[in-house]
């Protein structure tokens, strides 16, 4: 009887581990900015053009206010916010300029998958955007690693 309980406990532990590992393995590694004194994650979950422009403006202003090597900026787009990172976005050049300056833009693949299911076509997004499986999960991961979450 004791042997069966131990075997059951081991199997349960393996199942839990198998469920947890894929979720943690899907996180994108932190930016390689060893001298960053400030770490900011900008949440973009709104499809409104003014909100998207505001996020880009905040990122740009932070780069001007701080030495780009001293600040890590990550924009996480999910839900309607992914519109900013689609290939046909009006603000594509601004996004690519910020990426060239060290800002990372994450796009939620769960949202991309939902768009594909609803429209029958997978949307194309800016190649320099970083795909993450779960946008909110990426925000949580960053917050747990010292990033301040800002939702402009």
Automatic annotation (TrEMBL):
Q: Which domain of life is it from?
A: Bacteria
Which InterPro entries does the annotation name? DsrEFH-like
User: What does UniProt give as the signal peptide span?
Assistant: 1-25
**Gene3D superfamilies in the cross-refs:** DsrEFH-like
Q: List keywords of the entry alphabetically.
A: Signal
Query: Record keywords: Cell membrane included?
Result: no
Q: What PANTHER family does this protein's entry cite?
A: BLR3518 PROTEIN (PTHR37691)
Protein name as annotated: Intracellular sulfur oxidation protein, DsrE/DsrF family
